[in-house]
């Protein structure tokens, strides 16, 4: 077991504090850390650093936890750039676009689905995402959803069952709900930790979503909801009622929705890259934070509404467009996101750097995290460690 001392850290963001405003608990200037056996063995001020078997100097750069991306749809086939172009020309996003991806996904082999998801997982990892959730939801039949769940389990840290994404063409709604809550759930549950429902006009209403989510919960899965993306769908109210881990999108919130979230344990997961691509209004992120709600940021990587794996892009957008501070945005993309997947505490906690915790971290080619918004679009994650191992291909020594 060799230890490695990392020095030259101009700013170490640990996000181990009590909240995004806890500057002393979250950040150490002129810091160092020791990695041993994939975990952080020590961290603190560089002047106090212990000796180690090996030494790496990051040359005055910033180090922070790896991104935790809690909302992706990585398992799919096909391309929807024509739909994107139509939207950019003035069309509006509607749930029905999912059907295009369903046809392509059903036609693909399991090997093709795994290869596509692996490519996106590698792309995300190279940009600092060390923990990632992936959903099913583009096959919408029993064998196809099971296949998607197996593929997701190959590449993702957490798998979510999203059979309730759309009622497939030609299938009776009631029959489809019976399928999702019966044989499809049984086939997918062994690979999944969560169940999700797209609670939206054109997808599933509140009653249908509740039925699906309760069936998933009875099968031992945690609950997540796609809610209030295209209108005040009732998804947020349902998520809070069911004590969901997360309600995602949240573009259209009433004051009552904000208050409900603030008084609940449900995380509002915001998806700024999707909002830009669909030209939906941004969620009221400031109002949520100011009311005391917990938020997370995620990419929502999918071929329809948000074809990006870049958490840094989401962080920059959250700062520049949604008026989060840098510290709030980075917290939401790391520790806040860990809360949204139940991985904030324990030996395998993610989203923060602490002694004894996993050495999942990134080195920025910048002296501070403020450069994530100050230099938007620049690939700043020049070193990425997952369980202490270097994962960035070729270009850096960190
Ligand atoms: O999160 N909103 C529902 N699901 C995806 C979009 C899926 C699609 O259009 O392919 C989302 O945006």
UniProtKB/TrEMBL annotation:
The keyword tRNA processing does not apply. Its EC number is 3.5.2.7. N-formimidoyl-L-glutamate binds at residues 138, 302, 304. It catalyses: 4-imidazolone-5-propanoate + H2O = N-formimidoyl-L-glutamate. Its cofactor is Zn(2+); Fe(3+). One of its GO terms (molecular function) is imidazolonepropionase activity. Pathway: Amino-acid degradation; L-histidine degradation into L-glutamate; N-formimidoyl-L-glutamate from L-histidine: step 3/3. Fe(3+) binds at residues 71, 73, 226, 300. InterPro entries: Amidohydro-rel, HutI, Metal-dep_hydrolase_composite, Metal_Hydrolase. Binds 1 zinc or iron ion per subunit. 4-imidazolone-5-propanoate binds at residues 80, 138, 165, 229, 305. One of its GO terms (cellular component) is cytoplasm. It is found in: Cytoplasm. Zn(2+) binds at residues 71, 73, 226, 300. Residues 63-372 form the Amidohydrolase-related domain. Its main location: cytoplasm. GO terms for biological process: L-histidine catabolic process to glutamate and formamide; L-histidine catabolic process to glutamate and formate. It holds the Pfam family Amidohydro_1. Keywords: Cytoplasm, Histidine metabolism, Hydrolase, Iron, Metal-binding, Zinc. Catalyzes the hydrolytic cleavage of the carbon-nitrogen bond in imidazolone-5-propanoate to yield N-formimidoyl-L-glutamate. It is the third step in the universal histidine degradation pathway. Belongs to the metallo-dependent hydrolases superfamily. HutI family. This is Imidazolonepropionase. It comes from Plantibacter flavus. The lineage of its organism: Bacteria, Bacillati, Actinomycetota, Actinomycetes, Micrococcales.
